[in-house]
Write a structure and sequence with these properties.
Radius of gyration: 18 Å
CATH architecture: 3-Layer(aba) Sandwich
Helix content: 25-40%
Strand content: 15-25%
CATH topology: Rossmann fold
Distance between the termini: 26 Å
Number of domains: 1
Structural class: alpha/beta
CATH class: Alpha Beta
Number of strands: 10
Number of helices: 9
Length: about 300
C-alpha cells in the first residue's frame, strides 16, 4: 500500500511515500497531499494517511525541504514560502501519477503546515478540499504569545546578529526547538511541548531538536491570516484543540470565524498534541469523513 516517491520542488528533491488504497476506479482515486508541521517529520503524519487510505483515498506524504529524507540546504530551515511551493509541486506531481484522479486533489496540513494549506487552497484552485489541523493562523500574534516580552528584545537582537553573520559568509545560527529549561531561548517554548517532542522525536533518525534561527524570524513575519477569506469556495475543515497553547485556541477560533463558507469546525479536547495521541481517533475520523464527502460523495 505504500511506496517511496520523490519529486522536484524548485531545484530540490523532496522525498516521501505514496499510499494507494486497495480498491481502484476507472477514473482514478482521489488523493490527499500531506506533510508535517514546524520542524516535524513525515513519520508523524503517516498514521493519518493510513486512516484515509483505508477509507479509499490515496495519500502523498512527504518531508519539507531541509527536513527528514528530503534534500535542501540549509538543513532545518523552516521557510514558509518554500514549503508552500512544495505543496503546489506535490499537487502537480500527484496529477501525473497513474491511477490518480487529477481533478480530485485535497490538501491536509497540521500545525505550521496547517497554515500552509490555507494559503495553498486560497491561491491554487486545483485544491478540492482543505483540512487545517491545529493550525498556526496568525504569525505575529502566535509568536508574541510564545516569546515573553522580557525575552523579545534579546530574540530580535539575535536575529539581527544572525543576519549580519550570514552576510559575512558564516553558517546559519541554530536554536533548539524545545528545552526543559524555561530560561533557554528556543523556537517553541513550553514544558508540554518539550515532553511530547522528546517522547516522539528521537525515535525518528532524521529528526533533530533544532532549527535555524532564521526560521524563527520567518515565523514572526508569516501572515497566513491574509488568505483566510480567499479559501472559499473551496470547502474547509479546521480541527482545533480547545486547550492549545502552541497555536493558541482563541486565535485559531477567531480565524475560523473570519473564514467564509463552506467551512466546518471540529473542536477536540486537549492541547496541541492531543490530535496525535488521545484525540487521534476524533481528529482523523473527522478529516476522513470530510474528505470523503468532498472528494467522493459530492461530485466536486
Amino acid at each position: 500500500m505504500r511506496i517511496d516517491i520523490a519529486f522536484t520542488s524548485g531545484s530540490v528533491t523532496l522525498r516521501g511515500w505514496l499510499y494507494r488504497p486497495a480498491n481502484t476506479t476507472t477514473t482514478g482515486v482521489p488523493l490527499v497531499v500531506m506533510t508535517h508541521g514546524f520542524a516535524g517529520v513525515k513519520e508523524w503524519v503517516a498514521p493519518f494517511a493510513e486512516v484515509f487510505t483505508n477509507a479509499g483515498l490515496a495519500c502523498l506524504v512527504y518531508d519539507h525541504r531541509g527536513f527528514g529524507t528530503s534534500d535542501g540546504e540549509p538543513r532545518y530551515e523552516v521557510d514558509p514560502t518554500a514549503q508552500i511551493e512544495g505543496y503546489r509541486d506535490a499537487i502537480t506531481f500527484a496529477q501525473t501519477l497513474d491511477g490518480i484522479n487529477p481533478d480530485r486533489i485535497a490538501v491536509w496540513g497540521t500545525s505550521f503546515a496547517g497554515a500552509h494549506v490555507l494559503v495553498v487552497a486560497a491561491i491554487d484552485r486545483r485544491v478540492c478540499a482543505v483540512v487545517s489541523q491545529v493550525p498556526l493562523t496568525h504569525g505575529w500574534a502566535t509568536f508574541s504569545r510564545q516569546v515573553s516580552p522580557i525575552m523579545l528584545p534579546a530574540m530580535h537582537s539575535a536575529i539581527a546578529a544572525d543576519r549580519l553573520a550570514r552576510a559575512a559568509g558564516k553558517p546559519h545560527q541554530m536554536i533548539k526547538l524545545a528545552s526543559d529549561d524555561p530560561a533557554e531561548p528556543v523556537a517553541t517554548p513550553g514544558a508540554d511541548i518539550y515532553a511530547w517532542l522528546m517522547a516522539n522525536g528521537p525515535q525518528v533518525p532524521t529528526w533533530r531538536n533544532e532549527v535555524t534561527l532564521s526560521s524563527v524570524d520567518k515565523l514572526q513575519s508569516y501572515t497566513p491570516e491574509a488568505f483566510l477569506r480567499r479559501v472559499s469556495p473551496t470547502p474547509l475543515l479546521m480541527v482545533v484543540a480547545d486547550e492549545d497553547t502552541l497555536t493558541p485556541t482563541d486565535i485559531t477560533l477567531t480565524s475560523y470565524a473570519e473564514a467564509l463558507e463552506p467551512k466546518q469546525l471540529e473542536l477536540v479536547p486537549g492541547g496541541h498534541f492531543a490530535v496525535y495521541d488521545e484525540q487521534f481517533y476524533q481528529a482523523s475520523n473527522a478529516a476522513r469523513e470530510f474528505l470523503l464527502t468532498h472528494l467522493t460523495r459530492s461530485g466536486t
